[in-house]
Specification:
Elements: E1 2-11, E2 17-27, H1 32-45, E3 55-58, H2 62-65, H3 71-78, E4 83-86, H4 88-102, H5 104-121, H6 124-132, H7 154-162, H8 164-174, H9 182-195, H10 198-221, H11 228-244, H12 248-260, H13 293-312, H14 316-332, H15 349-356
Parallel strand pairs: 3-4
Antiparallel strand pairs: 1-2
Length: about 350
């Protein structure tokens, strides 16, 4: 049995925005045809004319967003002037998933955070040992990483960074504790060796720099006042913020924090210079090579995150929705009266035919 949720957003006569949760509904299967029938049944049961539906937003699964047999295609047949917008927050989540999947520095760091949370939280004795490392100081509780929502991982990363020394001490004791079962002790030993490497702390600080602004944008995208225009503006600001991280001074600041922690640093051998793939670069200027392999990995993550933000949010539906919002806002503010409005750009076939007549 499949289950889906349905939420309706509308404005009243005073142009006040309302968002109502209509409930959870069971569907026999998750095909586009079945889900479309379930949605139309809900509208009929609530006596809501579905023909007045102006837009719909969900994830990018083929059964939902398919252009031929997905839910959005079937709704488009019933409501020709409606718009489909790929959920902005889900798009941002997919961006971070792509970075975590393709950049080894990010993937290894997130696995480390998850491993730390697992070994500490799964045993009350280990929790007590970890808490005892703080003495009279405030205890920093370790959080596990959310497996599905990539936009809410910053706090877990920050807590591992702020309690890095205490975690090292805890792992050092646990790896030699014979009362810990063998498989867990082996895992703890691996995490302890990883914590001694400067690359691990470097990865944590880099992930914090990348994920923190993304989480701030994610909160805005989920607010009650979220809009298509606001989503595009937030995304553009986020891209500018991420591009600004591609700076040697930013990396030097992170590397100085790692050096101050007195962790194991790589040797001074020259690393073979390698170029960032052209599809991930945001400039045509010659690439400045550096001997720092860590810096190369961080810049790789920055470039991929920037490219994915541009790709995922380059949606026709969102752009048209933002344009419609601008027209309504300008009309409400009695502005733009001298401007020539291209109706075709609004994708309103019914309105265009009325005007032509």
């Amino acid at each position: 049995m499949e289950q889906f949720s349905l939420t309706l957003r509308y404005v009243d006569e005073s142009m006040e925005i309302h968002t109502d949760f209509l409930g959870f509904y069971n569907a026999p299967d998750s095909t586009g045809e079945t889900l479309f029938k379930c949605i139309t049944d809900v509208f009929l049961w609530l006596n809501i004319p579905i023909e007045r539906l102006k837009g719909y937003c969900f994830d990018g699964a083929s059964n939902m967003s398919g252009r031929f047999s997905g839910v959005q295609a079937r709704l488009k047949e019933v409501c020709p002037d409606s718009l489909f917008v790929h959920c902005a927050n889900h798009s941002l989540d997919l961006v971070l998933q792509e970075v975590g999947r393709k950049v080894s520095l990010v993937a290894e760091t997130l696995n480390f955070v998850q491993g730390i949370a697992t070994v500490i939280r799964e045993s009350s004795k280990r929790k007590e040992l970890y808490v005892s490392m703080f003495g009279c100081d405030d205890v920093v509780n370790i959080l596990a990483i959310c497996l599905t929502r990539w936009c809410v991982r910053t706090i877990a990363i920050k807590r591992v960074c702020s309690s890095y020394t205490e975690l090292q001490k805890t792992l050092k004791i646990l790896k030699d504790d014979k009362s810990v079962r063998g498989d867990a002790r082996a895992k703890i030993g691996g995490l302890y060796k990883q914590s001694l490497k400067g690359r691990t702390l470097f990865g944590l600080l880099c992930c914090e720099a990348l994920f923190d602004p993304c989480e701030a944008v994610a909160k805005n995208l989920q607010s009650n006042n979220a809009s298509a225009r606001g989503a595009l503006e937030c995304t553009n600001l986020l891209r500018e913020r991420i591009v600004a991280l591609r700076d040697n001074t930013v990396v030097q600041g992170i590397e100085s924090k790692v050096s101050a922690a007195e962790l194991k640093m790589p040797d001074a051998r020259q690393h073979r210079a390698s170029k960032t793939p052209a599809c991930y670069r945001h400039t045509t200027e010659p690439e400045v090579h550096t001997t720092s392999a860590w810096r190369h990995e961080f810049f790789e993550a920055v470039d991929l995150l920037t490219a994915e933000l541009k790709r995922r949010f380059d949606q026709d539906g969102m752009k048209i929705a933002a344009l419609r919002e601008n027209v309504l806002i300008e009309a409400a503010n009695s502005r733009g009266q001298q401007q020539t409005l291209e109706l075709e750009s609004l994708h309103l076939p019914q309105l265009i035919s009325d005007v032509d007549r």
